[in-house]
Design goal:
Helix content: under 10%
Number of helices: 2
Number of domains: 2
Structural class: mainly beta
Radius of gyration: 40 Å
CATH topology of the largest domain: Jelly Rolls
Strand order of the largest sheet: 2-7-6-4
CATH superfamily of the largest domain: Galactose-binding domain-like
Distance between the termini: 118 Å
Length: 288
C-alpha cells in the first residue's frame, strides 16, 4: 500500500509538470506567463508602448498635443495688449505623436513663432500635424490637433499709456562743422552735424530754432543728407527754406539705410540775401 501511494504522488507531479495552463498558476506549472510590462514579441501595436513594440509610440501615453507659449516658455491662453499697435511674441509648441511637426495658423502662416500686433480683440488658432509612418506593419496615420489663444486689446485709457508715450524724446544739441578733405561743387557748402547718426527705418528729428535775419534777398535753402563717409551725399532726407523771423523747423527724417554721418547742405542761389541769422541745431531720437 505504501508503494502505491508513492507511485500516485509521483504521477501527480509528472502530470502537473506537463501542464501548460498559464492561467491557473499552480505550483510547478510550466508555460508562458504574460508580463504587461515586458513588451514581448507579438504584443507590438500603436496602443502598446512597451519595449519590443517596434519603436511605435503609444497613442495614449504619447498623444499628439500643441500649446501656445509666450517668450518665457509659459503656456498661455490669453494675450493682453496694452494699446492698439502694441505687440507680443508667441510660439506654438508641439509634442508627442510622431515628429517632425508642421504648423498652420488661422491666417495661413506656417511659422510656429508669431508676432501679434492687433488693434482689436481676436481669436487666434494654431494647428499642428505630425508625420505619418508608412509601413506594412505598425503604420501610423498623421494626426492634427488644434489650440486657440485669445488676444485682448485694451483701450489706452484702460491699459494705461504705453511705456514711452509719456516720455519726451531725447534731444541733443548739435553743432555743425566744416568737413575736411571733401571736395564739393562751387554752389554748395557742406556742414556735417557733429555726432548725429541714423539707423535704417528709425525716425529721428532735426530741429532748427532761432531767428532768421536776411537782408537784400531771400532766406537760404538747406538740405539734409545721409552720408556714409562724411563727404558723400548718399541719400537726401529732407529740405527746408529759412525765412526772416522766428525759426521753429522740425525736420522728421527716416533713412532707408544706416548712416554714420548726417550732412546739412547749404545750396547757394542768386536770390540769397545777406544773412545775420542766429540759430541752434538739435536732434531728437523720435519725431514726437
Amino acid at each position: 500500500m505504501q508503494a502505491t501511494v508513492v507511485a500516485l504522488v509521483i504521477g501527480s507531479l509528472a502530470l502537473a509538470a506537463c501542464s501548460s495552463d498559464a492561467s491557473a498558476g499552480r505550483r510547478g506549472e510550466v508555460g508562458v506567463f504574460e508580463d504587461a510590462g515586458s513588451g514581448a514579441a507579438g504584443s507590438a501595436g500603436f496602443d502598446n508602448p512597451a519595449p519590443g513594440s517596434g519603436g511605435v509610440v503609444s497613442s495614449v501615453d504619447h498623444a499628439l498635443e500643441v500649446e501656445v507659449q509666450d517668450i518665457e516658455g509659459m503656456t498661455i491662453e490669453i494675450v493682453t495688449l496694452s494699446c492698439a499697435g502694441d505687440c507680443a511674441d508667441i510660439e506654438a509648441v508641439a509634442r508627442g505623436g510622431h515628429p517632425p511637426y508642421s504648423f498652420e495658423w488661422e491666417d495661413g502662416s506656417r511659422d510656429p513663432a508669431r508676432r501679434v500686433c492687433l488693434s482689436e480683440d481676436a481669436q487666434l488658432a494654431i494647428e499642428a500635424t505630425d508625420t505619418a509612418i508608412v509601413a506594412d506593419e505598425h503604420a501610423y496615420e498623421a494626426r492634427t490637433v488644434r489650440a486657440e489663444v485669445t488676444v485682448s486689446v485694451l483701450d489706452c485709457e484702460d491699459g494705461g499709456t504705453p511705456e514711452d508715450a509719456s516720455v519726451a524724446p531725447l534731444c541733443t544739441e548739435r553743432i555743425t562743422g566744416s568737413p575736411l578733405g571733401c571736395s564739393s561743387a562751387s554752389d554748395v557748402v557742406l556742414n556735417p552735424i557733429e555726432g548725429l547718426t541714423l539707423q535704417a527705418g528709425v525716425p529721428a528729428s532735426i530741429r532748427v530754432d532761432g531767428e532768421g535775419i536776411y537782408a537784400l534777398g531771400e532766406g537760404w535753402h538747406y538740405e539734409v543728407w545721409g552720408s556714409i563717409d562724411g563727404c558723400s551725399l548718399d541719400e537726401q532726407l529732407d529740405a527746408f527754406q529759412l525765412q526772416n523771423g522766428p525759426l521753429n523747423i522740425r525736420s522728421c527724417v527716416t533713412a532707408s539705410r544706416s548712416f554714420d554721418h548726417v550732412i546739412l547742405l547749404y545750396r547757394l542761389a542768386p536770390t540769397d540775401g545777406v544773412s545775420a541769422t542766429v540759430w541752434a541745431i538739435s536732434s531728437c531720437d523720435s519725431c514726437d
